[in-house]
Design a protein that fits this description.
Elements (H helix, E strand, L loop, with lengths): L1 E6 L2 E3 L5 E9 L4 E9 L6 E6 L5 E3 L7 E6 L4 E6 L8 E10 L3 E5 L3 E5 L2
Parallel strand pairs: 2-11
Antiparallel strand pairs: 1-3, 3-8, 4-5, 4-9, 5-6, 7-8, 9-10, 9-11
Length: 118
């Protein structure tokens, strides 16, 4: 009933940039927080950045100053602008949206691979 579809991943050299997008579709009432998470091989899924419906953002310390989260509420879309990428940013990136049903429920995308390598 609700789908989150990420796009924009790929292979980039160290120091390069990528822009991830995540579109939420389906039976949407209202969306609260939206966020990006990442999971490297053999590691747990970690928070990268989260943004409220009002536009307030928080970031993991490791990405502050390099990655920027934003959202377009009219398009039900969240973005992650990734600059000055490092090899340690290599991971599968997932988006999450908190959508209201009777209670707030977290929905996840299928993930998009980001590889930073020369």
């Amino acid at each position: 009933q609700v789908q989150l579809v990420e796009s924009g991943g790929g292979l980039v050299q160290p120091g390069g940039s990528l822009r991830l997008s995540c579109v939420v579709s389906g039976r949407i009432t209202s969306i609260n927080d939206m966020g990006w998470y990442r999971q490297a091989p053999g590691k747990q899924r970690d928070l990268v950045a989260v943004i409220t419906s009002g536009g307030s953002a928080n970031y993991a310390d490791s990405v502050k100053g390099r990655l920027t989260i934003s959202r377009d509420n009219a398009k039900n879309t969240v973005y992650l602008q990734m600059n000055s990428l490092r090899p340690e940013d290599t991971a599968v990136y997932y988006c999450r949206a908190q959508i209201r049903r009777i209670v707030w429920i977290d929905y996840w995308g299928q993930g998009t691979q980001v590889t930073v390598s020369s």
